[in-house]
Amino acid sequence: MSKRSINGIDxxxxxxxxxxxxxxxxxxxxxxxxxxxxxxxxxxNMNLTMTTGVGELRKNHSASIGQCSGVLSKGLxxxxxxxxxxxxxxxFRGFGRYAAAYEELNSQQFAAALQSGVDxxxxxxxxxxxxxxxxVAKEAARHAVFLARRTTDINELMTEVLAKAKEALxxxxxxxxxxxQVGVVDSGGQGLVYIYEGFLDSxxxxxxxxxxxxxxxxxxxxxxxxxxxxxxxxxxAYVPASAQSQLSTEDIEFLxxxxxxxxRKLGGPQAEAFDEDQFRKALSLNGDSIIVISDDDTIKVxxxxxxxxxxxxxxxxxxxxxxxxxxxxxEQHRDLLIAGIxxxxxxxxxxDIPEEKSSVEAPAVPPADDLAPYGFIAVSSGDGITEIFKxxxxxxxxxxxxxxxxxxxxxxNAVTSISxxxxxxxxxxxxxxxxxxxxxxxxxxxxxxxxxxxxxIPQGIAAAFAFQEEESVDSNTERMxxxxxxxxxGQVTYAVRDTKYEEMDIKAGQYIGISNSKIVAAAxxxxxxxxxxxxxxxxSGDEIITILTGQEADLRDTEALEGWxxxxxxxxxxxxxxxxxxxxxxxxxxxA
Length: 592
What we know:
By secondary structure, the protein is of the alpha+beta class. The chain folds into four domains: about 5-205, DhaL domain (Serine Threonine Protein Phosphatase 5, Tetratricopeptide repeat), CATH 1.25.40.340; about 255-340, 2-Layer Sandwich (Alpha-Beta Plaits); about 370-485, Rossmann fold; about 490-590, 2-Layer Sandwich (Hypothetical Protein Tm841, Chain: A,domain 3). Helix content is about 45%, strand content about 20%. The protein contains 21 helices and 18 strands. It is globular, with a radius of gyration of 24 Å. This is DhaL domain-containing protein. Pfam families: Dak2, FakA-like_C, FakA-like_M. InterPro entries: DegV_domain_contain, DhaL_dom, DhaL_dom_sf, FakA-like_C, FakA-like_M, YloV-like.
């Protein structure tokens, strides 16, 4: 049956089906990481981004595709995580801008909306790279615009768009040599293809039509003979412990996870004027993980609280409470421990979808009325690293890194929690820079923000060290950029699959050393891999070497490594700190 147009109801069903398809295959997308490291996260980031957008769309859907696409765009923008999530949010942002004036779209308008999304996404990326999700989206949209001149059937159009997207995905290794070398297609492009598959399922079947294969759908899409292994198939000694097993149930202080909306229009004339700062301050007395997003008519609230009754009584002062969700996190944690599983970001899209939770800790003392000249936000991947950043004067430290990237909303809330004239953001990971930049864009005109594009924890620490309170914004920005350019960063982890990288044949379970985004060492034991990596990073022998030890690092290996450095590089200055980062045994910093 042909379909001449799609309205908001059709579009909502398409998005739900696309999100469901992506969620079911998120682990497969993760497995396409170029490096065989245990923290491939493209699928997780895209899944979390879509989940946030879908949550907004389910609450605010309508028959107008213009309104629905705008709601989705807002949700995706705030929930975007990692480069892939930010690019995905920009694709739908551009789509929403085009569709804003329409109740429904015909085939030519739908194609034009796809093209508008591509144009927006390319503008958002400073240096677009071909052979990525951008290429897949571009080729699919270009084909849609061409075909829409020849057909009025959107079902036919979407069928061809999906086919073109798959063709472009298969060609990504020819555009990005590292993909061909490792034998995978682009992970972000694969995620987009899954979303488009959901779109087509919805159009043709009126619902999502996946067979529910989920984790079984790890079909190989590799160009070579790369062997994909799950963590259980790698040497068990290499697998980090479950995060939930490391937490005591009684340690969950603010045990009630609360989410609700305050409808200002239904509050009546007796409703008090809403002061967001005062509201946040009141919530922080018995709560943390606070998110407050307000517009003229609606206030969205998320908080972990000891006293849910007090929270609801406070909210009632400002209007009528709707869509209340309260979860006992101690009870949830006990259930998870009994089941022997860890929390995974894979909710069913047709169930009640929880909103994204900010990882910003509420400040112990509310911001002062007088603005400080500078404020700082940094992303950390371990408790020890967090303490280092706090000792350097960082105001808000976001939990993040490779395995869990902060969202755009996390950065927005962090910025609004700091009472300062100018705020610096240190993303400390190349996959987090775009989300930080997007938060800056969203707050343009409201707050002065500079994103120092630090791509590693050592770069972020070096930038924080270089900052001088008495210097101007321009001078400090220059100082910090110079500092991150002086630092060489390295890390040691383990391989989760067999792969061939440049001239190295890497086996699953081997330790690998990475420097400047390249694998430069592989060995059967941790000490040998660490020594090989440092040998390549050190040039003159009199550099400053900083070692951040991870959760899985063994004291004997660390002492042996320190002894080896002292014997072979006697003029080097060596500092060792407990970083506490997961998955990476060591983070190295070398500075002349």
